[in-house]
Amino acid sequence: MAGKIRIGIDVGGTFTDAIALDNDTYEIIGRKKVHTTHQAKEGVTKGVIDILNLLLKDIGRDAGDVVFIAHGTTQATNALLEGDVADIGVVGMGKGIGTAKIKADTDVGEIALEDGKSIKTSYRFLNTEKGLEREHVEQVLEEFRREGKYVIVASEAFSVDDPSNERKVSRIAADHDMISTASHELSKLYGLKARTKTAVINASILPKMMQTASMTEQAVKDARIKAPLMIMRSDGGVMQVGEVKKRPILTVLSGPAAGVAGALMYEKISDGIFLEVGGTSTDISAIQNGKVITKYSKIGGHNTYVSSLDIHTVGIGGGSMVRYKNRSVIDTGPRSSHIAGLEYACFADPGKLKGAKVVSVSTPRDRTCDFLALEGRDKTRYAVTLTCAANFLGLVEEGDYAKGNEESVKTVFGILEEEFQKPAGDLAWDIVNIAAGKVIPAVEEFIKEYSLSRNYLVLTGGGGGAGAVVPAVAKKMGLKYRIAENAPVIATIGAALAMVRETVERTVINPSREDILAIRREAEAGAIRLGASPSTIEVTVDIDAAKNTVTAVAIGATDLSAKASVGERLGPGQLKEKVIKAFDQYDGIKGELVFDSGILYAFHLTAQKPSRIPFMKRKIDMICVIDSSGVIRFHGENADYLELIKGDMEKLEEALEEHMKFDESGRTSPEIYLLISGKLADLSGLDSPEQILSLADLELKGLKEEEPYLAIMKKR
User: Fold this and answer.
1) How confident is the model at residue 336 (pLDDT cuts 50, 70, 90)?
2) What pTM did the predictor assign?
3) Would residue 563 count as lying in a domain?
4) Does the CA dihedral 218-219-220-222 come out positive or negative?
5) Residues 295 and 418 in one domain
6) pLDDT over 80 at 303, yes or no
7) Which end of the chain is more exposed for a tag (fewer CB within 10 A), N or C?
8) How far are the Cα atoms of 61, 215, 318, 595, 644 from residue 458, in angstroms, in the given order?
9) Does a structural domain hold residue 564?
10) How far apart are CA 137 and CA 139, in angstroms?
11) Does 628 score more than 80 pLDDT?
């Protein structure tokens, strides 16, 4: 009997990919690729419809077998890049002596986008000192309508505390067939200017995204698939399509996010840098303790309150072309061969390269005519690319998507060696080193910014061009690397396996226990609303005393697939081997299992590493938590651990006090993690012992009185 399946769809600039996974084993049971339908009347949605029908037919399954379907989309990004945006009417609101400042913050003017495009706004202000009258709102809306503006933003000072006026404006706008965004729907922070700008950018793409989302949703319904359509978010999670119609701005980095989601769940990355390499560019992101790193995104150079993956994009890809002058390689990238309309020379028919000559070519986007190509006897031209050089140097492994034709590769570099009067290997390294030199600074920046340890850092490559870029970068940096299994479709896999994620961030001065719990519950409720199963949700709370913010991030699996990660469950012995291998750069490493919940396992590791004093070695003492699928969820040197039971709250409090740091800046709470059953509760973002103990008490509620848990603490 056929089992249930999960479907992931990735809409790219050139191709739309779809993949079907077995819901129990996550084995790939089918994949399809079609050209992205930019020119169709239905837009890219037609490609989604086509590929969905083709995939189900190809694998011989019907709609009733589909329990999860999600896709990454570039629609929001493309709308902003191409200026396909609506003009906006902004309704600013406020009262009191600060109205001048409120007007300045909510009247955001024209918001510049790429290539001279912009979002145009008109502004009206309503003083809410005596309340908000419907007739005043309707008058403003009528003025906007006469100006041709049918999309509205409602933004009021302190609406994060009382959103009633923003909601009222939205309701009245809906009554008049106008669509709207209320600023409190996108952020719970007080920063009025950034919140208003975020709302305006969101509103500007609402008409386009509502249309696309509705058509895609209808396509899924027409295919008789009952599972709700999920859309990738910029932060690596997913949300139901209904939410996209309200908050499309959350999907701006949806495409790259799908790749990272695939790396996290399919490749089981603990600590590393993920490089998704396409034909033109490489998207680089960081993963720490099995979690993707996020930050506020900039859109068109504007600061927003949209949480997204911290992604650096570099103009180097597998198809990057080579520039040359006077028989010397002078650059690699950023132009790729598809821009020039040329095939990679390393994939060409070897026979057509016989007798080929070196020629200079240009691209439609460049005035220069110094891109390196070969012209065959039949006048067909082939681009010399980064992939060609990587193949010649043996950096691309057998069976890799980027593996070229060996005879063609030898022919290409034989011709170049004769033309350039330089050893072919030196030429290939010139090409590769220039490319790697552009990627390495972004990787180094992540390592520095997030204090990632080179000792166990792994570069993981995804995308069709990974084999051409990642090995060279790792070699030059002296780091470990691996190419993801099914690298060319890792983003599609990521869409199929993505988790639901919701972030709530509020401005709260000296937050009380009740404040923290309320924000935590709000994030949890948001994740459930987006489609997460309540039993799978984990919530992390972070308090930034300097910014007076409390942030809660809730992550959970969808209702129909409550799995922690991909793959088989490993036993304690296998997990011990994985942990020791992860830190095998240390001498004499030994590991002891100190806690086993059946889902999460804690190991105490000891080892030695070279000291700064010559011929001396320093002892390493480390705690490592790994889950049953082999993902390291936490590791820390000089961390203490204590096994407790639910009723030992006084012992937890004593241990907390022992690990407090006291210096001239005052008292600093330790990093603290609670290993409770199948969950690792991270309480390190909390500021005071009272806050930590309150949240610890909440996390422990599900335990029986004598059931053990592990507390891990480390002085900051």
Assistant:
1) confident
2) 0.75
3) no
4) positive
5) yes
6) no
7) N
8) 38, 41, 20, 26, 34
9) no
10) 5
11) yes
585: Cβ contacts below 8 Å, ≥ 6 apart: 455, 456, 609
In terms of domains, do 191 and 210 share one? no
**32 in Cβ contact with 23 (< 8 Å):** no
Compute the average pLDDT of residues 693-699: 86
Contact 674, 699 (CB under 8 A): yes
Count up the domains in the chain and report the number.
5
**What is the reported pLDDT for 326?**
87
Please state the φ and ψ torsions of residue 281, each to the nearest 5 degrees.
-140, 170
One domain, residues 351 and 490: yes
Q: State mean pLDDT over 683-706.
A: 83
* pLDDT, greater one: 709 or 208: 709
On whether both 459 and 506 belong to a single domain, the answer is no
Residues in Cβ contact with 35 at an 8 Å cutoff, skipping those fewer than 6 apart: 14, 15, 16, 47
Q: Where are the beta strands (DSSP E) in 442-560?
A: 458-462, 480-483, 499-507, 538-544, 549-556
Phi-psi category of 127—alpha, beta or left, where left has phi over 0 and alpha has psi -120 to 50?
A: beta
Same domain, residue pair 123 and 177: yes
Classify residue 274: in a domain, yes or no.
yes
* Residue located via tokens 């609101």: 93
**Residue 271 CA to chain centroid, in angstroms?**
15
Return the CATH number at 447. 3.30.420
> Residue 432 in contact with residue 394, Cβ under 8 Å?
no
Instruction: For 455-610, list the strands marked E by DSSP.
Output: 458-462, 480-483, 499-507, 538-544, 549-556, 587-596, 600-610
Look at residue 564 and tell me whether its pLDDT is greater than 60: no
Which of the four pLDDT bands, split at 50, 70 and 90, describes residue 168? very high
Asked if the peptide bond before residue 256 counts as cis, ω within 30 degrees of 0, the response is no
Is 413 found in the same domain as 324?
yes
* Contact between 243 and 474 (Cβ < 8 Å): no
Domain that holds residue 93: 85-204
% of the chain with per-residue pLDDT over 70: 94
Instruction: Say if residue 690 is in the same domain as residue 600.
Output: yes
Same-domain check for residues 43 and 171:
no
Round the CA-based radius of gyration of the chain to a whole number and report it: 27
Of 532, 556, 580, which one is at a domain's C-terminal end? 556
In this prediction, residue 335 carries a pLDDT of 82
What type of residue is 136? H
**Does position 563 have pLDDT exceeding 50, yes or no?**
no
Q: Examine residue 691 and state whether it is found in any structural domain, yes or no.
A: yes
